[in-house]
Amino acid sequence: xxxxxxxxxxxxxxxxxxxxxxxxxxxxxxxxxxxxxxxxxxxxxxxxxxxxxxxxxxxxxxxxxxxxxxxxxxxxxxxxxxxxxxxxxxxxxxxxxxxxxxxxxxxxxxxxxxxxxxxxxxxxxxxxxxxxxxxxxxxxxxxxxxxxxxxxxxxxxxxxxxxxxxxxxxxxxxxxxxxxxxxxxxxxxxxxxxxxxxxxxxxxxxxxxxxxxxxxxxxxxxxxxxxxxxxxxxxxxxxxxxxxx
Length: 245
Known about the structure:
This protein is an alpha/beta fold. It has a domain at 35-52 and 87-239: 3-Layer(aba) Sandwich (Rossmann fold). The protein contains eight helices and ten strands. It has helices at residues 48-55, 78-88, 104-109, 122-134, 150-162, 180-195, 207-210, 231-239, and strands at 11-19, 22-32, 37-41, 65-68, 71-72, 89-93, 168-172, 199-203, 215-220, 223-229. Strands 6-7-8-3-9-10 form a six-stranded mixed beta sheet, with helices on both faces. It has a four-stranded antiparallel beta sheet with strand order 2-1-4-5, with helices on one face. The longest helix has 16 residues, at 180-195. It is globular. Mean pLDDT is 87; it is low at 1-8 and 17-21. It comes from Singulisphaera sp. Ch08. Belongs to the ABC transporter superfamily. Macrolide exporter (TC 3.A.1.122) family. This is ABC transporter ATP-binding protein. Residues 10-245 form the ABC transporter domain.
């Protein structure tokens, strides 16, 4: 995973992981730089979801290293892992994972409950409203998930992922339950977040979704088989007379 600019935040994953006797990742060594926009692709069982779970500190590698910033994830306690997730990482899931009895406001603020007191200050309320406006839901703050469309629920999930101002956004098939138009609206939103400096790492099996990224990693049988700029970035480089080798 290389190395970000001085003082930057980056992560490095090396080695293998296994579940029971199945090696989900084998001999993987990869760098992710601060500010990248990456799509991880592969068929079911390719290891892409395991990769995302490791990056999100939801799983630990059983061998090798995962360096997140300056921390070796494999050496952290459960409490330390929870703190890393809370401070550095925002999650967006295919099934939204909203709490049905909570309002939009309460769902957006949910990650704060994992940070000590979870006190809802004026600053938290201001940021909640700011995020809701950013995702176009500022008039639905008192609604509950069953009063929202799938696209609106995913917008709540995006706002929730940003409430702690994380370095990294991890998206697991974030458009999998959405129609084509809504999917591309969500991808445009992620693109704007990346333009603003957020690192985006997403798992998808859809080529048209992956092409929104700037870098595409393809996996098969727990290994990386290809890693390079997306077609969009290749076309942009060609137009500017730059060659990727």
